[in-house]
User: Fold these one by one.
Assistant:
Number 1:
Amino acid sequence: MPPRSSSWKKVRDAFIKKNPTCAACGGTKSLECHHKLPYHVDPNRELLEDNLMTLCEGPGNCHYVWGHLLNWKAYNPTVVDDTKAFLEKIRKRLTNDLESKE
Ligand SMILES: [Zn+2]
Ligand SMILES: [Zn+2]
């Protein structure tokens, strides 16, 4: 397997700058750039923007949960649809107004 590209860090930083929210929870902290198809599966897609997505490593650890299904050696082939559905739920979640007004 060829070594990771030397431009990865640059591509990653630019991608996160351009997509500054987690695709799963909408969070803006501890953002990481996830490969939809991992490097070890297809090294040629390492730097392709359409193979990347922003996921956070915040409280919900969306990167680990949605991107890798709780195993860094695994990946989630339906991560795009899964995170889209989850984000929709987050946006529509009901909160307890009484509690938040205190
Ligand atoms: Zn997240
Ligand atoms: Zn990842």
Number 2:
Amino acid sequence: MKIHVRSGLYTLIPIFSLLLLLLLFPPGCKNYNQVDLYPPCDTVNISYSSNILPIISANCLPCHTSINQFGGVILDNPDSARIPARNGLLLKAVTHDPSVVPMPKGGSKLSDCDISKIRSWINHGEPVKQVKLFR
Ligand code: HEC
């Protein structure tokens, strides 16, 4: 049985059409936009356990636990973290206000989004809500 092999210019037609299609409709890239690359910083309904503790754990422990309470600051539970949150030291430390020692000590400044979350927690989260004695 003789196998018919197409040759010459005709073979190139599908290849050229494919190249032309790729040129006209390049794959990828078209779905990327600013929102995908820079997800917005969500600072609504910030709670200590879901939003603040992860930032503290990654950047502030073990220097600020009940055991290593450097500077008298304990950040590993919401009741203790409320104290520097309310007296302003927490925000001053993470925003590198010149009146306090910049935090995290020995590390790089927190991201703008993390700082915004901390600010939102201080202003709208547990620190301003009334402390309930019986829950
Ligand atoms: C490597 C240890 C270390 C880490 C990590 C660290 N701190 Fe501190 N922090 C200290 C020490 C030590 C002090 C006491 C001031 C001093 O001697 O530098 C302090 C003081 C503070 C104070 C009181 C500031 C003042 O001037 O009274 C705050 C608020 C604070 N830290 C918050 C944080 C926060 C928030 C983080 C994480 C983003 C953090 N720290 C990470 C060691 C640390």
